[in-house]
Predict the 3D structure of the following.
Amino acid sequence: MRNKSEKIFRSICYTLTIVWVLLVLFPTYWLIISSVKDQVTAYKSPPEFLPSLPTEVLVKLNYDGDIQNNSKSMQEAFYKDSTIITWLLFDKYKDIQLGRVKVVAVANENVEYSAVLKLRDFKLNRPKIWYSFSLKEEQIIGKLDDATKVLNIKTVNYKDKEQSSYKYEYEIRKFLSSKALITGKIFSIAGYNSFASLIDNYIVALKAPSLLNSSASYGKTAQNSIFVSVMGILAQLTFSSMAAYCISKVLKGKISHVMLLFFIATLMIPGVLAILPLFLIMDRMGLMNTLWAVILPAIPNAFYIYLLKGFFDALPAEMFESGVIDGASDFKLYTSLALPLSYPALGIVAMFTFITSWNDFYWPYLVLQSRENWTLNILVYTNTNTAAGVSSLIDYPVVLAMALIASIPTLIIFAVFQKQLQKGMIWGGLKG
Amino acid sequence: MRTIRNIRLSLGKSSIDKKLITVLIFLVPSITVFIMFKYIPMFQSIFYSFFKYKLSNPVESFVGLKNYTNALTSKIFWLQFYNTFVLFGFGIILGFWVPILQAVLLNELRIGRNFFRYLYLLPSGITAIGSIIIWKHIWNPSGGLANYVTQLLGLGKFQWIYDPELVKFCLRFPAILGGGLGLIIYFVAIQNISNEQFEASFIDGANPLQRIYFITLPNIMYIIRIQFVLALTGSLQAFEDVFIMTGGGPGYSSTTLVLGIYQKSFSELNFGAGMAMSVIIFITTMILTIMRMKMDSKKSI
C-alpha cells in the first residue's frame, strides 16, 4: 500500500540514514586526509576539508658568466647551491605543502644538473643535519656532505614542462635572493602538482621508528603484533574448541552443566579485578616484558567456549552416534567429524580473537617495557604523546599515518568479512 | 576396529578410564588457563586487598579493612566514581539510542540497505587508538574541527578536553555517531522478527510509525535490556579511551574508577589499595547484575 505517507516516511528514513552514514564515515575520512597534510596545515583554522596536492617547486639556476668555462667549479657550486636551496626551502615553507624541491642548473641554455629533495628524505634526515628550530645556511654548510647525499643529483637533459605561474614565486625568489651563499642566479621558479609526495608521510611513518631506536623498527613492532595475534588465535581455537566439544559431546548431564558454569562464571569477573595480580603473576613467572605475557592471559575466554558449545550442540547427533558405534574414540570424533564441520564457527572465533587482540592496548603497554617488544598500538600511542612541534621527526600527520597503516588488517576484515562478522554477532549477541 | 570394540566390551572399567583420559585431554588445558589467569588472580585480589602489599614481601602487613575505608572515605575515590557515573550518563544520553534508531531506519530501507549497512560497519576497521587520536585532534582547541564548527555556528571557541567541565562530554560525544558492531546487534535482532506480525499490522492499516512503535520496538526490548546492562557494567570499567584521550585530566576531572586504580597501583605502587578498589567495583557490578536479574524475573510475572 504505497500511499503518500509511506513514501514520505521512507524518504525521511533514507535521508537520516545517509546523514548518519556520512557522520560515521567522517572520522575515518578525516584521519586519511589529515595524514597526508603537513603538520601546519593539519592544524590550520579554518581546516582544509578537501585534500590539496603537494607541490613540487622547481628552481632554475643560471650559471652563465664567471663559472661558465670551468665545469668542475660549476659542479661544486651547484652541489652547494642546490643543497642550500632545497633544505632552506623545506625549512622555511612549512605550510604550503612542499612535496619536492627540485633545483636545475642551466648554463649556456643547456640544462646541466638537477637535484631533488623529497619531503620524506627531508623529514627522515633532518635530525642528522640540525636540531634547532630553524635552519641557517651556515649549519648546512657545516654538514654539507651529509645534506648533499640526500639529494638525487644527476646530469640531465631536462625537458621543460609547461610553465604556469606559481603563486609563491615572488616570495621564494625574494627569500632566496637574500641568501648570499648561493652562487647561481635564480632564473625561474615554478610549481607543479606532485602526486608522488602524497605517500611521503607514510614512508616516514614506516622508517622513522627505527631511526629513533634501532631495535624498534616499524617492521619489528608489526611482527610483534602479528605474533601475539596469531599465537592467540591458535591457542584460542585449540583450547576453546576442545573444551566446548568436551562439554557438548563427551560429558553428559549434570557434570556438563557444572563445567560450563565453571567457565561462564568468569564472565562476571570484571577485567580490572584480575589485572593487578596478573601483572604480579607475570612478573613472578618471569614472563614480564615478553610477548607471552600478552598472549597467555587472553586465552581464557568463556564467550568462545559458550559459542562453540552451542555450535557443537547443533550438530546432528546421529553422525556422532554412528561414529561411536564404529568404535571411534572421542578424539577421533572430534578431529574427523566435529572440527571439519565447524570451520565457519572457528573462522568467526578466529576473526573476533584477532580483532580483540589487534586492538589491545593497555595490557601490552603495561607489560612490554622494552621498545623492541612493543606492539603497534603502543608505538602509535607513544608517538602521539611525543609528536611535538613542526621540527620533530614524527609529527602529527605521520602519527596518523602510522595509525592508519596499523589499522590495515582490521580494515581488511571489516571490508571483506562483514557477513561473517554479522553471523558472529547473531550467535553471540542473541543468545543473551 | 572390531578388536577394539570387543576389548572395550570385555574390559568395562578401562573404557571409563579411556573416557576419563579423553576428558582430561580436552579440558585440562582450558581449566588450567582459566584457573591461572582468571580465578587465581581474582582470589588474590580479594586476599591482598586486606594487606599493605609490598613487592618484596607481599603479606608484610595485614591492614584489614583499611584499604577499603581509605578508598570509601577518599574524596578522590568518590570523584572518580562520580566521573565514571557521569561518563555513563553521557554515554546513554548521547549514544545508547543511536544504534537502535539507526537499525530501525536501516530496516525500513529497501534498495541500498546492504550498501548502507556495509558503510556503517566499515569505519570499525580503524583501530581503537586510531579513532581516539583523530578525535583528540578534532577536539583540539587550536585548529581542531570542533572549534571550527562552533565558531561557524556563532558559539565561539571552547577548550574541550582541556576544560574540566566539558571533558566528559567530549569523551562520550563520538557515541552519537553510532554504527559499528553495536548497530549490527540491533539490526540482526530486527531482522529476526517474524514477518507475520508485520503483515498483520499492514492488514490492520497501521502507518509506519505505529508499526515501529508497536511491533519493532517491543520485539527487540530483550536485546535493548541486555545491551543496557552491558553498558552499565561496562561503564564501570571505562578506561582505555579515557587514558589515551586525556590521561585522566585535566586534573582529576576525567579520571574514572579504573584509571584511579591504575594510578594507585602503578604510580603510587600501592597495590593493596588498588586491589581493594577493584573489589569494590566487582561488588558493585555484582549488585547491579543481581538487581537486573531480579527485575527480569519480576517482569515475566
Observations:
- The longest helix of chain B spans residues 12-48.
- The longest strand of chain B covers residues 51-52.
- The mean pLDDT of chain B is 85.
- Chain B touches chain A through 104 residues (CB under 8 Å).
